[in-house]
Amino acid sequence: MFVSESVKARCMSPFHDRLTALRAELARRGLDGFVVPLTDEHMSEYVGAYAQRLSWLTGFGGSAGSAVVLADSAAIFTDGRYTLQVREQVSSDDWSYVPVPQESVAGWLAVHAPNGGRIGYDPWLHTRAWVADTVQALAERDATLAPVADNPIDAIWTDRPRPSDAPLAVHTNEHAGASSAEKRAAIADWLAEKRADAVVLSALDSIAWALNIRGADVARTPVALSFAVVGADGTTDLFVEPEKVDDAVRQHLGNAVRLHPKGALVDHLATLSGKRVVADPERAVAAIFDAIEAGGGTVLTLRDPVVLAKAIKNPAEVAGHRAASLRDGAALTRFLRWVEMECPKGGQTELSAAAKLLEFREQTGLLRDTSFDTISATGAHGASPHYHVTEESSASIEPGQLFLIDSGGQYLDGTTDVTRVIPIGAPTSEMRDRFTRVLKGHIAIDTAIFPDGTMGAQIDAFARRPLWEAGLDFAHGTGHGIGSFLSVHEGPQRIAAPNYPGGASLEPLRAGMMLSNEPGYYKAGEYGIRIENLVLIEPREIAGGDPDRAMLGFATLTFAPIERTLVDADLLTQAERAWLDAYHARVLELIGPELDEADREWLRAKCAPIG
């Protein structure tokens, strides 16, 4: 056990009381149940403190999940990334654990909802497709899905934080690579192509990218709580609290962007009577669809046009990311040396290690924030892919363990995300075998060449084959997109199996997209392994290939040493050894000049040929 039973009991008791209070509130409202997703009114992956309803109710600290509360039972739904974490943080006395995608909230309700019952939901926290699926499922029980005017959790969460009032900031054209006017003109052209009058932008990173603004309303993600409606002429109505906008931002936005309080969105949508209005079925909540239709507008269910434009990085964004990666890689390299020198001595913990890495990044003088809460995990904690270290859970880093560090930085010119594993003392032969198989999968992705239009689902197995050959696998995607001083997880591209919990990875891969390359292996109760670099999709010329078939490949963006003592060279092919040696030669070439002499000498040894 990582957390003593007494500590666990203390942590669980307030959550039992909250569950009891919610049931009383539901009964007062005539509801037989309520669905609690982990999202906000923008369908965000990472949400502000004010929207952390699932965590407040259950104690679950992961970044994806949902729950259903009925009068006599309750269930929490998480995917394979959180199998261990949810059991550590959420009491089995009050909650049953339901795995996804094997089961869904709708499917569970079709079995467990009371006959003829009324199940409540907040239409500002669910998509219209989810509503339709759940209505259909509840029909099996002759039950109904009932929208609530206000969230019942908010009625009992007496000390609920207020939404952030952090000011907006201008993201300069130097970093953005294109002006807001140019981006809005491109959206207007897209609207003309679709014969639409306007598009509602509800995803926070879409708004930030389209208007070249950033914010600080969500921890680790530089976005501002807002909505935007872009018209066919490129003019835009931005819905954001007035106190968040200063004169510099007003001047940047110009007269073509009209400002309104955030709460005025619904009234504005009512003015679009007779208009054809685009709303993204994955990113716009059901309440937005309802408001457009109630006002007499016609909804076109199309993907937000910013999503793909944002994913394909322009030259300024690519150059910025390369610069951010080098400074971040140098900070990480200093940290890796510190771990090797200090952690075997004892006295270091997961929290102290995370703090030390933050210190190295802050020494760059350019860090704006971390890009997510650092996953600092030693020993068995590493077996939980999205483990979140707390004061209560922080474990000592001890000899004989593998220490996994997954972290990233937010810089004005780029967002980083990188994972490395360091043995504390001598690793076992099994650890080396598993690490090498993960490395082989990482190399297979990095060296993949594929036709333009290939989907991430088609190459995901490349990363898994070396593990499959040993009867092993990992329960998360292999790669996700990444923003440019924006979200560390960005769609629509990903590398994952078709049945991945986040949805099928069927988006065609295109030149200019950035992705993570992060296969892993996790042995419950013992250790976790993940090797993560970021890569850029680039065109590839293939000698003798079909001249009419465009080919693509990956260019590595992340440079930091991969622990050589964990590599079993006998498991590598000659080509894989050559890849590792060439990668380390680039690490030494690019990162070495950023280090002092002692760190550079250490790096030189770490980057020696594998032999």
TrEMBL record:
Family matches, as InterPro entries: Creatin/AminoP/Spt16_N, Creatinase/aminopeptidase-like, Creatinase_N, Pept_M24, Pept_M24B, Peptidase_M24_C, X-Pro_aminopeptidase_P
Domain of life: Bacteria
Sequence ranges assigned to domain Creatinase N-terminal in this UniProt record: 18-148
Any single GO CC term annotated in Swiss-Prot or TrEMBL for this entry: cytoplasm
UniProt GO molecular function: metal ion binding; metalloaminopeptidase activity
Domain Peptidase M24 C-terminal as annotated: residue spans: 551-610
Keywords tagged on the record: Aminopeptidase, Hydrolase, Metal-binding, Protease
Domain Peptidase M24 residues, every copy: 321-538
Family label: Belongs to the peptidase M24B family.
Protein name: Xaa-Pro aminopeptidase
Species of provenance: Sphingomonas gellani
